[in-house]
Here is the input.
Amino acid sequence: MLTKKGKYGLKALADLARLQPGETAFINDVASRNNIPKKFLDTILLELRNAGMLRSKKGPGGGYSLSRPASEIRIGHVIRTLDGPLAPIRCASRTAYEACDDCADPERCQVRRSMTEVRDAIATILDGMTLEMFVASGGIDLDEQDPLLSKTA
Here is the structure.
């Protein structure tokens, strides 16, 4: 599940992706435009900067901006940076694997195999989506992609 941290990070990055080249935005402005608590956004933007997605500049004309084009920032990388692995359970994770205490044979575990498929499906979508695509499309509308995933199905 996407946490508020991940959601706010995506909203902030989308906001910054809409800036003109060379333009920066103050954190207060990004926070108010997106209804994000400023103190929480401070932490999020620092993590994204440390991961190489943002640059910051102090003083007049300062603020935050993307450190590279939105077409080079993958949504999967953003979510992993802010929320950790995409896998729904630890034993299905590629980057943070932990065996379950109650599992005698992880290779034959049906839960693990199923959740690995879920992880792969999530990763395929999120790693295939750039920030540029995310901003252009307004994100993913699952109701239009697959009727089985709609809220009314």
Observations:
- The radius of gyration is 18 Å.
- The helical segments are 4-17, 27-34, 38-50, 75-83, 110-128, 131-137, 142-145.
- The chain is about 50% helix and 5% strand.
